[in-house]
Specification:
Helix content is 56%, strand content 0%. The chain has twelve helices and no strands. α1 crosses α2 and α8 packs across α9. The longest helix is centred in the middle third of the chain and has 16 residues. The N terminus is likely disordered.
């Protein structure tokens, strides 16, 4: 493949071009993915540009149903002009106001630390294009309430890094158990072994596995 891993390349080719190249590579490298790609069609993964708001959403959604998380985030966003929380605004928001929209004390503290992380330079969105996946993960997990899985989801859905393989994701495990004929949910080591041929397009392979859970 002519394209370089996203952790090394400096250009930003269009998503459609990258995903098309990824689809061709995966179809050639893995017979299981070849069938899934044929059933599901083109990858339509698109970046979520608002880094801070996306991370707020991720923290709020932890251990909640999708519906409840959406309701609470909607109330949280409503605290701010144009429904767009910013690090500066969240840092100035009284904890009582955050609690009033349905956030627990712990999640309110997490959001405050996230805002502080953007303001004190622990997280620098402007540098992320030049940082490796691991450098970004290291920065994100310095924030209370953000673990490696959340950081990997940020790399995939906000930055659209193409080479992220979230080996601890339950959806990935269930899809691989089903489509690869495994007796049990695969270990991280097994996932990496199967996914070795996917490189440098692990993200797109993961997207197809997630989508495959909807297939009958």
């Amino acid at each position: 493949m002519a394209l370089l891993s996203p952790t090394k390349r400096r250009g930003r080719p269009g998503a459609r071009t990258s995903h098309a190249a990824a689809g061709r590579h995966l179809a050639q490298a893995d017979p299981v993915l070849r069938k899934l790609i044929a059933c599901i069609g083109p990858c339509d993964l698109t970046p979520r540009r608002r880094c801070f708001a996306t991370l707020c959403d991720s923290i709020i959604a932890q251990q909640l149903s999708t519906h409840v998380a959406e309701v609470i985030f909607d109330r949280f966003a409503g605290l701010y002009p144009r429904r767009l929380p910013t690090p500066q605004a969240v840092a100035k928001t009284a904890p009582t106001r955050l609690r009033a929209v349905g956030l627990s004390r712990q999640k309110s503290d997490y959001l405050k630390d996230l805002a502080a992380g953007f303001l004190d330079g622990r997280i620098q969105p402007g540098r992320m294009a030049r940082q490796s996946n691991e450098e970004i993960i290291e920065a994100l997990v310095s924030i209370h309430g953000i673990g490696r899985w959340t950081a990997e989801m940020f790399l995939i859905f906000s930055l659209n890094r193409l080479d992220v393989l979230p080996v601890d994701d339950l959806g990935i495990k269930k899809a691989m158990q089903r489509w690869y004929g495994l007796r049990a949910l695969p270990t991280a080591r097994k996932i990496r072994a199967i996914g070795k041929t996917w490189h440098p397009y692990e993200t797109v392979a993961s997207w197809y596995l997630w989508q495959s859970l909807r297939l009958s």
